[in-house]
Write a structure and sequence with these properties.
Blueprint: H1 2-20, E1 28-29, E2 59-60, E3 91-97, E4 100-111, E5 115-128, E6 131-144, E7 147-163, E8 166-175, H2 190-193, E9 200-208, E10 213-223, E11 230-241, E12 247-249, H3 252-261
Antiparallel strand pairs: 1-2, 3-4, 4-5, 5-6, 6-7, 7-8, 8-9, 9-10, 10-11, 11-12
Length: 262
């Protein structure tokens, strides 16, 4: 008998629980009673959240009141006054004056299973009118299995600016010594010899199409590795300039020359 009373109580409570979960309109309503002498026209707005038509004929949207001690303000962007630093990875200006600078640069190239090349350069840049001069020294260190070889060289260039978008450059790179021998006494294999620094001499015209794109065209002579012979090859290098000091180029002329030569 007690079980029947318990089931009857549960059946009576369930409808009241379901009714309490009914969602009401998200606004402050005055109900259906309209006070005499108070006009609500112009202040009545439809419910902006519910998709169904509002059954309340008039109501106000809720607006939070401003606190007198802690007023609400619009968020402002955080300004930490951090200076904007312009730098190039692997490139550092040691000393600079109005028309020139002393610059040091370096980079590392890793070829897993083959070798690692650490390169460094120290040079002086000087501008005189439309001329620009550069002279410096280079060091390349080749680390491979059971071997370490250091290569030294000198480089230089002279450029003349004809117009803001056209210039001509004569350059040279000369390396001392010969490629090293491997641990077994054999010369460097073809996979490694292609990355060994070679002496080059030549010149090219640099035409800047716009602030970012340009192309270099000219001619150079390149030393054949392990010999004192030089071969001429064309220079056709379109490039994209990232900033005033760094540009990415593709040597199309040299690539096509070697493909056609084979």
């Amino acid at each position: 008998m007690k079980h029947k009373h318990l089931w009857a109580l549960l059946l009576a409570v369930i409808p009241s629980v379901c009714f309490s979960q009914t969602e009401l309109n998200d606004s402050i309503s005055f109900g259906h009673s309209k006070f005499e002498g108070i006009s609500m026209e112009g202040a009545v707005k439809p419910d902006s959240v519910s998709g169904a038509k509002n059954t309340e004929p008039y109501h106000f949207e809720y607006t939070p009141a401003l606190h007198t001690l802690f007023p609400y303000t619009l968020a402002q962007p955080l300004d930490l006054h951090i200076p904007i630093l312009h730098s190039t990875p692997g490139h550092a200006t040691m000393f600079q004056w109005n028309s020139g600078a002393i610059v040091a640069s370096g980079d590392t190239r890793s070829f897993p299973g083959l070798m690692q090349i650490d390169s460094g350069e120290f040079g002086i840049y000087q501008s005189v009118g439309n001329f620009r001069f550069h002279a410096g020294g280079m060091v390349n260190k080749y680390g491979y299995i059971n071997g370490l070889h250091t290569q030294y060289g000198l480089n230089g260039s002279i450029s003349y600016q004809f117009t803001p978008r056209l210039s001509a450059t004569i350059f040279s790179e000369y390396y001392f010594g010969q490629p090293p021998r491997m641990a077994n006494g054999m010369p460097m294999p073809p996979a490694m010899i292609g990355y060994y620094g070679r002496s080059t001499f030549g010149g090219y015209f640099d035409f800047q199409i716009n602030e970012r794109w340009g192309v270099q065209t000219g001619m150079q002579t390149v030393q054949q590795v392990g010999t004192n012979r030089y071969k001429a090859e064309p220079i056709v290098t379109p490039y994209y300039r990232i900033n005033k000091k760094v540009a990415i180029g593709l040597p199309v002329g040299q690539i096509l020359y070697h493909i056609l030569k084979k």
